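User: If only I could read backbone structure tokens as easily as an amino acid sequence. Underneath my words sits a plain record pairing an amino acid chain with its backbone structure tokens. This is the protein in question:
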Amino acid sequence: MVAQKVFISSVRQGLEDERDALPPLIRAIGHVPRRFEDFTAQPVASREACLQGVEEADIYLLLLGQQYGEPIFDSGLSPTEEEWVVARRRGIPILVFRKRDVDMEEAQLGSLSGSRSTRPGDSGTRSQPLWTFSRRLPRSFEN
């Protein structure tokens, strides 16, 4: 089996335990976890390092919790949503897990319906917002 690079994407606040538990589990099944915490002391901004991490990933693992994250000034998207847009554009497998028993922020639930992807190389067409994906999750993720 060839080791797959798994990019773990989420806000940290409220998902600390989940984020810290995943890397050892992913390594235990023979794959390579990558997450924001792995991109320290880089010659590029952490935002660009993380987006490059998604570009190099074989699998994108998204954790949804209460927080959407702070939108970035030039795109209007949270870092997590920017990463999600890159994963969708690339067409790599996306695994989504939603934390139970949390009330999601309004930004997670619907205020981004007009968001646009502004990443270099994107056509500028409307991206499918992160919240749209979270609303399509099977009910079994919430039980």
Q: What stands out?
A: The radius of gyration is 15 Å.
